[in-house]
Design brief:
It comes from Arenicella chitinivorans. It contains 5 helices and 2 strands. It has 73 residues and is mainly alpha-helical.
């Protein structure tokens, strides 16, 4: 996957549990866990906004583009 999800890093910085964060943003712990582990193919802007609000961060702190293409020289 070319997009890395750093939700666990932001959660650790804020010292917030999966259960507490899911309660605050109003999604199930199952769905938040899937997002945290990168097992989702999409995320709603409303969910991303809620995560940023609760974690006091920017979308780029949670989502990171990783170039996985091989360089040919």
């Amino acid at each position: 996957m070319d997009i890395r999800i750093n939700l666990d890093v932001e959660m650790a910085k804020k010292k917030i549990s999966l259960k507490e964060l899911s309660r605050r943003i109003g999604i199930s712990t199952t769905n938040l866990s899937l997002l945290k582990t990168g097992k989702v193919k999409a995320v709603r802007f409303s969910t991303l906004a809620a995560l940023c609000r609760e974690l006091n961060c920017q979308p780029g702190d949670i989502l990171e583009y990783v170039d996985t293409s091989e360089t040919v020289e």
